[in-house]
Request: fold
Amino acid sequence: MDSADIEKRIVEVLKTVFDPEIPANVYDLGLIYKIDFNPEDGSLDIDMTLTAPGCPLADYIMEDVRQKVLGVEGVKTAQINLVFEPEWTQDMMSDEARADLGFM
Reply:
């Protein structure tokens, strides 16, 4: 599997991670800011945010992301970084997420 295939698979698994309070996945919500995969050593670095800084489910969501991306063939390590810059807004959502949440 080449690097592009692995990155595509990473996005696919990110679309299976949901905030239990919102019926849309973290990728389509626009919560994933950076996916940096290094094919040479299999390391993955993800920057992500939350819809609200005080989210009580932050640890749960981040661990779900980490466990799922570690299941992708080729990913050996995964660092999930919680960031709040830039601040998340509804404008970051995909059209699919907007439709799922009734914003369209």
